[in-house]
Amino acid sequence: MNKIVMVKSVKSQNSQNDFCVNLKNLSDKELYLICKKWGAAALAARRKFAGLLPEIYAREMAEREKGRSWLKKRGFLSVYEFAAKLAGMSREQVDLVLRLEKRFEDKTILHSALVSGEVSANKLARVVSIATSENQHDLLGKIETLSSRALEVFVKDFKNQNGLTETKTGDESLHVQTFKLEKNDLQVQTLESEINFDLELADDVKKNLLEMKKKGIDINQILRAFLNERKEKLEQEKSRIVEKQIQKRDDRAIIGMPANRYIPIEVRRVVIKEFGNKCSIPGCNRPAENLHHEKGFAIDQCHDPRYLKPLCRGHHELAHAGSFARAVILCSLSIDAPKQKCLSRRNRMQIPHLPAAA
Ligand SMILES: [Zn+2]
Ligand SMILES: [Zn+2]
To answer: For residue range 189-212, what is the model confidence (pLDDT) as tens digits?
Structure first.
């Protein structure tokens, strides 16, 4: 902070050399802070400018009807040149803002957020396909609190949950048309995608299964029994680990030590055995990056594998923002997860080597 003041005072002396020397004296942290400060200011200014474009465009159109040009009068050939020269905006960004403004004509809250520059057009574009007059207020709340990644995940979940699918024609975000599918259509789609999923069975396994089938052995029965046995073993393993974890926690409590926040390797292993290395939210196939405490570590001070779920970054953010309630009713996670620290950095997924037998 002191250094920022220093940079300003140096600037006021109008000495470029001193300014550069002092910049060199900044620590990495101070330099990064200054970059973040001006970067945020630049983005905010760009949003404000972008919000003005629909009005500029409307005035240009009104003037053209009278045979004049608002833009040419000011030395610009088009709204694109206007936006590029004054704010460094690309043609695509201008198109995005103008299209969004049209799409939000009947959604006053989102419209106002766009033209006031309150939120970015890019974030608004992510929700445009699910926005309605009824949900626009809630959506604005999501836009304001979630990162772009989490917002994307939220919109995808919302569509899955409501049986919506999309077709894209050309433009990434604004030409999206949303269709409602019947429940049966969804079931057929899911089944087809599962059938097409390649199990990548090894040749020896395929050979064994085929031989068994030829002998009239019910392969499905064998596989079902195997899967049930695996499930039971997992439950037993989890119960054993829970007991151990509770014992450890209580032992530490007796001698006045706080619970260990690091998730032990055996807990990680059993969770990954159960869920694999993908996000545990149904339908989400993104890589898992965090082990999330459904109950919140602060509550039971225990790494209970029954309540630990691997989540992708987007779903992890949604879990902490309490956004599952509306977005992922289908999911197995607790709804309305409280806002709490989940030791994100410490508990990033560190996928241990899994034993060969699951
Ligand atoms: Zn978490
Ligand atoms: Zn996910």
So the answer is: 555 555 456 788 888 998 999 999
